[in-house]
Every structure is written in C-alpha cells, then in structure tokens.
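note to self — DONT lose this again. spent like an hour looking for the file last time. sequence + predicted structure for the chain T wanted, 253 res
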Amino acid sequence: MAPQHVMITGASSGIGRALALHYARSGARLSLTGRNAERLASAAAACREAGSEVEEGLLDVCDRGPLRDWIVAQDAVAPIEVLIANAGISGGTGGPKGEKEEKARRIFAVNVEGVINTVAPAMPLMIARGRGQIGIMSSLASFLGFAGAPAYCASKAAVRVYGEGLRGELGRRGVGVSVICPGFVKSPMTDSNKYPMPFLMESDRAADIIARGLARNRGRIAFPWPTYALVRVLGGMPVPLSDWLTRRLPKKV
C-alpha cells in the first residue's frame, strides 16, 4: 500500500524534491520543509499539480522547537506514515583556507542535530501507533573519512550509525528505520563540484530507488553499487594506503 502521509525535510531541491514528486504521483498527502521560500513553493506547486495535498513548512531543521511543533501538528492532521530526514548541507577543504571551523560546525548542526530534531518528535507518535517508516539520509561518504570533506564525511557517518542503532530498537515496536546512502546524485549540492563524479545519477532515479527501499524496510539503501563497492574496499584498506589514496582525491568547496 502506498503511504498516505509522507513528511520530507529539505524538500525544496535535489533528492528531497524528487522524493516529494515521487510520492505526489501516488496521491500521498505531503508535509514538506525547506529554508528557501521560493524553491519550497515551487516544489509544493509541482506536487499539487501531480495530484497531492501539500503542507509547506518554511523551517530550518536546526530550529528544534518550531520544527517539533510543526511535526506534531502535521501528525495530528493525519498520521505520518513515512518520515524522511533528508535536509543536509555539504562542504570541504577545497576553499582557499581549507575547512573553516564555522563551516564544520554548521555541517554538524544541520546534518546531525537536524536529523535528531526531525526524528525525535516523530518516534513516540509512531511507536504509539506501532507502525511507520523513518528514512535517514546519510551518504556513501560515511564509510571513509575523505581528506577533502572531513566534517561532511563524519556527519554522515554519525547519522548512519545512529539510524542503524535506532533500527534495532524501533523495529521491535513496529517502526522501520532505513539508512539511505547515495553516491553522486545531480542536485544543487553536487552542482558545486568542479571535478568528475563517477556514476552521477539523476535525482528522479535516486528517488525511485529510495522509495522502493523504504517500502521494503531495507536497513541500508546504498547506491549505485559500483561506488558502494569501491568505498567499502577503501574502508577496508590499511590506513597508510587509504590515506595515500584519499589525499589525492578532489576536495569539496
């Protein structure tokens, strides 16, 4: 059965927008958040045109109180069946002065605290009903600390392990948890990368893979498989060798 109410953070562009459109075509009610009013309104309008009822929340996932209140309010209108904690930012050491402290702290705030701020209010609601599916957006970059993006890799590793731990706990209570680990997906985030991105995937294709994985309650939705295999091999190498290789990879800005 297609979910009746789907909530997606960071839904104004990239994978978030593609996921919103995917679920809109099935007629699900959508609760969408984003920080950019114009892009969020555009995404919501596209989903309404596809046949979905949409509620917009102009919210920053770092604003814990307003986000919690909005999640609880949306669940009161219709129980949230699928929650996708998608909002995230990137950055790395590619700037003139490397990765500044302020940038690293902001990456952790959005990518880690933002996920917790999204998931925590929804968990007791789903547990009380004994059903629901939570998707946590990590990355294939979570399997190794790349020299070009230390904070980004670390933040995605944190939420991946967090989600894997939650899966074991919440599964006993009827709530599924899937950790999503994409490779390169075409989006405003990857548009800033000025280097070749192997197996770059269109966002609608990524959304299809993610939605199928969530429907099957897959613990880890990792794709594309060649990139996934590569990072797992790199992660298993002796540290001196992986250091030598990762230092030679391009750096994110």
